[in-house]
Design a protein that fits this description.
Largest sheet: 6 strands, antiparallel
Oligomer: single chain
Distance between the termini: 50 Å
Strand content: 25-35%
Number of helices: 4
Order of helices and strands: HEHHEEEEEH
Number of strands: 6
Number of domains: 1
Radius of gyration: 14 Å
Structural class: alpha+beta
Length: 102
Amino acid sequence: MINDVFWVETLFAMRHAGPETLDILEELLVEIRAHSCLTERKRGAFYKKSAGFLHFHEDPGGLFADVKVGPDWERFPVTTKPQRKALVELVKKIILESNPAE
């Protein structure tokens, strides 16, 4: 029962970033939009070709980005400016590895 309560609380606490959170992340979004191989279908949700690549979450513990790294989704914190800078570098690295012309 305790595990069920934990998972329900975790599931409902972590949600996709809303408009106010995306406003906070706007500088980061601008940097990500600069990559021509990414399409932003919905604000803050980026696709590479037709596959999801990057989107954002918020919860009481902070702000997070889910990024498709290889076949898996990985979560990265983006609450602080250094964390956002690290995310931009990761996105660049992934794009260059899969699309050297970018």
